[in-house]
């Protein structure tokens, strides 16, 4: 089913989160300004527990590697680390962040298509889990192994294989081929295996197979898991330690999204079923790694924006808020997010209007939501947008106005997870020349 392109807005008493009262948000405004994000820490813990339980109850040798790129708010990453999640990173920036928040480097999974010699040296020296994405990285690994002949060098390979279903591409945007990983169909995998095995102290211990699919279907994960297991048994059985199926699974969608999607248990049943079949007779089953991002954090963030003005232009109503489309959907897709209005005063009027919620930038297309049906929000009301935790904060550019703060809500406490940006941070004097 398709997502709704317009939704009927409801007032705050129906909001499932704690912040329902206007005066509560006003108190937070005094510290964080008239727009800010809210991180629901308890919801984050619940998501982690649900994913972990779904998989670990079916396949015990299992870990979660949280996808930092989805939302690398340090407060959030540290909380997930405390819960037991490994750090899945795709750049040196993210790797260094994991170290900065105190993550054990042995619990860092270093993926991604761009790694320098220095990155490889650091990851291998720290005994991090390293997945090679491209052939050029093999030379870096071999140079490290040559300089450290007494050290065993374990590496994993990200592999690229066909996941089309009935001749139709399963990849996002309908791309015919994924651009990531080492191709298994053109001799590149055999070349990689030969090159790595030319060094006695290098061990190929795992296979990684993350694919960004457009439908996140169970069938896609069945194909991915089965291919990884088959390739592992055919090529690295004697040294196999882990199967990393990547991320991309659906999380729990808000009720207004009229979509039927697989639950965590459905994914776990599909993936773990194959793992148990393929490795059921093994004395020690290989580690299964899942790298969720969207599923972990999308629904644990809200964005609260104060209404500055509601005005009528010809036959349309426009509600200006202290926020922009960059704060709630930086890719500027046309779907309306679930949202609630927290009103300053109760208006017994039931008159409804159709209105648009627009932002502070000078772009005509700065629509946070469009064609909303409900009672018109008024000045000093607040609009709370839900499901803004995935990619929204990391994509949020410093454009026209400073980035908003982030409040961590851990019942009943409210803590600053990120302060509101000021001109000193916006134009950092360590990098800008004045």
UniProtKB/TrEMBL annotation:
It comes from the Bacteria. GO terms for molecular function: diaminopimelate decarboxylase activity. Signal peptide: none annotated. InterPro entries: Ala_racemase/Decarboxylase_C, De-COase2_N, Orn/DAP/Arg_de-COase, PLP-binding_barrel. One of its GO terms (biological process) is lysine biosynthetic process via diaminopimelate. The active site is at residue 362. Keywords: Pyridoxal phosphate. Residues 47-298 form the Orn/DAP/Arg decarboxylase 2 N-terminal domain. Its cofactor is pyridoxal 5'-phosphate. The modification N6-(pyridoxal phosphate)lysine is found at residue 69. It holds the Pfam family Orn_Arg_deC_N. SUPFAM superfamilies: Alanine racemase C-terminal domain-like, PLP-binding barrel. This is Diaminopimelate decarboxylase. It comes from Siminovitchia fortis.
